[in-house]
Amino acid sequence: MLAPLSWIREYVNLPTVDKLVDRLNQTGTTVAAVTPYGEGLEKIIVGEILEISPHPNADKLQLTRVQVPGKILSVVCGAKNIAAGQKVPVALVGTSVPVGKDGSPLKIEKVKIRNVESAGMLCSAKELGLGEDHSGILVLDPNLKVGTKLTTALNLPDTVVETEVTTNRGDELSIYGLAREISAVTGATLKPLTAPKLPTKINSPIKLTATIADPALCTRYSALAISGLKLGPSPVFIQTRLRSAGMRPINNLVDITNYVLLLTGQPLHAFDYSKIAEGHLIVRESQAGERLTTLDGVTRQLGFGAAVIADQGKILGLAGVMGGEHSGVGELTDTVVLESAVFDPGVIRQTALKYNLPSEASFRFVRGVDPTSSVVALELAVQLLAKYAGGQVASELVDIYPKTLEPVKVELTSAKMDQYLGFKHPLSLAASQLVKLGFKVVARSSSKLTVQVPSWRMGDVSAEEDLIEEVARLSGYDNIPSSLPSGPLMESSPHPEIAYLRSIKIQLTNLGLTEVMNFPMVSEEMTGGETALKLSNTISKEWEFLRTSLIPGLSKTAVTNINYGIEPRIFEVGKIYQPKDGDLPYEKSVLTLIGENYSQVKGIFEAICTNIGLPSPTYESCQSTWLDSATSASARIESEVVGIIGVVSSTLRTMAGLHREMVVGEFDLDLLLAKIPTSKTFRSISKFPAVTEDLSVLVANTTPVGELVQAIKLFTEIATLSGVEATEIFADDKLGANKKSVKLTLKFQSPVKTLTSAEVKADRDKIAKFLKENFQAKIR
Amino acid sequence: MQAYLIDLEKEALSKIAAAKTSAELDQLRIKYLGRKGGSLTKIISELPAMSVAERKTVGPLVNQVKTSIESALNDALGSTNTSAEPQLPFDPTAPGQKFPLGKLHPVSQAYYEIIEIFKELGFSYAQGPEVEWFWYAFGALNMPENHPAADDIETFFIEARANPKYGRMLLRPHTSSVQIRTMETSQPPIRIVAPGRCFRPNYDASHIPSFFQFEGLMVDKNLSIGNLKAVLEHFVKRFFGPEIKIRLRPHHFNFTEPSFEVDITCTVCAGAGCALCSKSGWLELGGSGMVHPKVLKNAGLDPDTWSGFAWGWGIERCVAIKYQIPDVRVLYENDLRVLEQF
Predict the structure, then answer these.
(1) Which one-letter DSSP state was computed for residue B328?
(2) Greater pLDDT, A500 or B311
(3) pLDDT of the residue at B39
(4) Which residues on chain A are in Cβ contact (under 8 Å) with B229?
């Protein structure tokens, strides 16, 4: 809320601005901005327009003769709202106005506009930096003397603080509410908000009655009729206050309702009395099929469940949100019904959201309006309307308050307060702090207080903890000593994500890969047609589904870096989301990484497996959404598929804008982490030398090397064989068609003796024979 | 035999050092390691005939000597090759061998650092689902449907059938849901830190639609605001630096009472006031407070017995403050030149 300090000062004395802001910030009212209002206007003076004539060379301009002290100026003016006899702000030649056309200060010089000399400028609110309105010249109070400084006329400069009020503190959304809070946090005395009582007797009152058809919609409905209104501009002081609080002046009736809203926090609404059938208002729920054209000229299909104000035949307005066009106040209106009601926060919130009609009124209703002040607001409005709009009360007061608020009493015990604060806080001090905030002490003992919550805090304070917060924030959190908690130690076991996943990630960085992170939300295209969860209110088509694989996102990241000329040695660890019917999805942790070729990705994967103690994976060809089926494989450990590795498919290459071959692997971390052995056992190392022998064989090029190696490992006749590896694979025209050469490096070692070359040769020969018989291998 | 081997090694190494051409080195290789008649090869072939005790001592030694001669030969061969080139003087500024080194994402680094820091105070690691029910994200946290507090926390919803008991499916907008899940399944005393992904429909220099928070929760008897302050002070000093101070500003969250915003002294100007902290000397870190009694009750704990405190702060926010990153979106652009700085 924008709060001009000059207005607040009417109700409470203020410290310096810096002190005030600091104190408000420390006690929970955030001050988002402090802005000077009406600065740089010392040289602007009040002038009187004596006469107006058309500009000889321009249809849209007029010539004015303006009286200023000692002389009459000739000024060209483009505004349409000027008239002879008006008092207006004048910037003389040589002075400047704060806001020129380009937003920066404008120096006034003697100029010729379309061949007519102009010596000065008549100013709009915008040019003076007083508001956004630049549709016309700022018309001042006709009783002002020519030559008066504008700053004197408007009581400027002022300071405006912008407060950010949390949702529980609707009571601070008014000048008086903020003054009350300031008095509590600074200790200054709060002046009462007074208004003359409504007349008790009205001569021949007109009929005004109301019913609340559904009490859930409306806590209190107060209204009265006012007649004899003469609509026109509101007094300048009201206009200035509205402008400085960010509102635009309209006319005396609207401005006064807004003025009372800002002052008290109670929204007011005016209906044209002549549009209400039989002077009877009904607060009810809208029904399916009902329509209303609101003040903004939009016809809305209401549907069921909005709170509306209606008469017998039609809807007059959306309660607490926006009035109807038909019942709106027009130029000819002379009798209005002024409504001061308190509507249900939930209903107003839904209505304002549904029709996208946020307003000053609905903002306050949603945060709770004090139902005890609806009549006070009417009294203030009546007083101002009588003074500035000629309005007189024309009906009896309607005041329906079906369920008067029961006073809420809350206990505050010394024990709990001291526990929370961490030190002994005298109960008497707590009592005086609460009283400053409007609480009433209704009972007191040596160990506890019972207080009654003020009507404006009833939505917020209902438990002892709430009172402790009030005491604590006024005492200052800085005064609470820090002390580490004590208590029993708790057993906890390491979570696999911390114990293992972190070390896997660090291993990957040691292998030269860098971790990247993408958002888990992806475009429809990036789901690859897999079943994926869809966001119902996304803010971008790029973020519409929850990913089912990290491969597309990581591929795009790779392309981004390739385009920067950086080799994408990258990995990502994250969740993928697999929908489950009627339940939350399975959030599976996966590791995805990118490498230059199949062998590299496989090598990285196997390095990780080895390091965390997993058995060697086995591989077979596979099909998957994002990989080229001819060149991709699934990896299994203990017969379960734990991941896939392969060349990215052409579809994905096109989608990611990738112009070269790339290999990616995606691995199921939930499965891998679950397979990590929890213990390791020592294995003794043979003290006798190992002998390495190479065996090169020629086999069909379709024979998987893995099978060859596996078969040798399982060939049990050789007890001394301690390792087999395929160390060289190549094809060559000289080898023959459909053949490949595989060099197998065999390691022999005995735990009990040094092997002789004869023994090794015999074993090697046995293996060669085995391969000849089982794989039609030719020994090279 | 041992002495013989040691002499053999000495002799071989000095001859290798003296050799000037690769042909000489080849000769030496044949002399010592040749398949037929090499001095060492001979000894190796005799090993099986030795006694077990002798084998145990000689075997390893033979291997050592063999490796030593081999590597001396290889080194010498390398230098004779280059000696054909003009000899270059030693240049200490010549580049070292390059090893590829990757980095963890800065958010990951912070994630693990946070866990470590709270572990020092006995907080264990906890997790909860990222896709949640309304009840866990709002209802149980004292934010019923249609409460304006829910407007303050904008939320992505999922197109899915609502659960009759727990309400709509959504992407959790904060990690506070882990508070409820933890209290439901474990008995106090509780001390957890739960870092994890959250989602909100915002995208600007300080907001991203998917981000990380870390939730902290302690539930025990007789906890005070001072206890909360001390725990948070420990964190900010460890994460941002020992000179950093905190202040609590009163705030409002439905799930804590009292509630605070926690500020730290500006990491750039140390409180003097600068552009980063908008001249205030303070940087806002995040929300915190004493667990609301209704939240304890909703999670099945008796608020008359137990008290608690909690906080939920943004990890990217912490990272941005720590490294002075002006726009958090840069963390998710995944430019390796950026990520490898941390």
Answers:
(1) G
(2) B311
(3) 80
(4) 477, 480, 482
Q: Which residues of B touch A687 (CB under 8 A)?
A: 56, 59-60
Reduced to 3 states (helix: H, G, I; strand: E, B; else coil), residue A261 is: helix
Put simply, the answer to whether B224 touches A420 (Cβ < 8 Å) is: yes
- With an 8 Å Cβ cutoff, is B130 touching chain A? yes
Judged by a CB distance cut-off of 8 A, whether residue A409 touches chain B is no
pLDDT in tens, A456-501: 999 899 999 999 999 999 999 998 999 999 988 888 778 888 889 9
Cα B129 versus chain centre, distance: 21
Cα separation of B169 and A541, whole Å? Answer: 20
Q: B83: distance to nearest CA of chain A, Å? A: 32
Structure tokens at A630: 């001819």
Max intra-chain CA distance, chain A: 132
pLDDT digits (tens, 9 = 90+) for A707-719: 999 899 888 788 8
Token pair, residue A602, equals: 């496989």
Q: Exposure of A529 by Cβ count < 10 A (0-12 exposed, 13-18 middle, 19+ buried)?
A: exposed
Partner-chain residue, chosen from A167, A477, A511, that has the shortest CB–CB distance to B225: A477
Closest by CA to A573, choosing from A679, A632, A496, is A496
Q: For A427-569, where are the E strands, in sequence order?
A: 440-444, 448-452, 514-515, 521-522, 545-546
B77 touches chain A (CB under 8 A): no
> Nearest chain A Cα to B222, which residue?
A419
Chain B, 256 to 275: residues with Cβ < 8 Å from chain A are: 257-260
Nearest to B158 among A30, A534, A560 (CB): A534
The token pair that represents B91 in the structure block: 């240049």
CB A270 within 8 A of CB A337: yes
Q: Chain B contacts of A510, Cβ < 8 Å?
A: 101-102
Cα separation, A539 vs B165, in Å, equals: 28
Residue A288 has pLDDT above 80, yes or no: yes
Residues 557-586 of A with CB under 8 A from B: 557, 560-561, 564, 566, 568-571, 573, 575, 577, 579, 582, 584-585
Interface predicted TM-score (ipTM): 0.85
d(Cα A234, Cα A145) in Å, to the nearest integer?
19
Buried (b) or exposed (e) across B263-279, using 16+ Cβ within 10 A?
bbbbbeeebeeeeebee
What is the DSSP-derived secondary structure letter of residue B330? G
- How far apart (Å, rounded) are the C-alpha atoms in residues A646 and A632? 4
Confidence class for position B46, pLDDT limits 50, 70, 90:
confident
Share of chain A above pLDDT 90, in %: 81
Tally of CA atoms within 13 A in the half-sphere of A180 that contains its CB: 23
pTM for the model: 0.84
Residues of B in contact with A487 (CB under 8 A): 189, 220-221
Q: Give B-chain residues touching A502 at CB under 8 angstroms.
A: 112
Residue A571 to residue A551: CA distance in whole angstroms: 10
Q: Do B293 and A345 touch (CB under 8 A)?
A: no
* Crossing angle for the helix pair B39-46 and B2-18, to the nearest 10 degrees: 160
By the 8 A CB rule, do A139 and A81 touch? Answer: yes
B125 phi and psi angles, rounded to 5 deg: -85, 135
Q: How far apart are CA A118 and CA A110, in angstroms?
A: 6
* Beta-carbon-side half-sphere exposure of residue B102 (alpha carbons within 13 Å): 23
- The SS3 of residue A83 is coil
Strands laid side by side in the A448-452 sheet:
A409-413, A448-452, A440-444
Place A353 in a pLDDT band, splitting at 50, 70 and 90: confident
- The dihedral region occupied by B278, where left means phi > 0, alpha psi between -120 and 50, and beta the remainder, is left
B256: tokens are: 């804590």
Instruction: Give the number of beta-carbon pairs within 8 Å between A and B.
Output: 247
Residue A141 · residue A236 · CB < 8 Å = yes
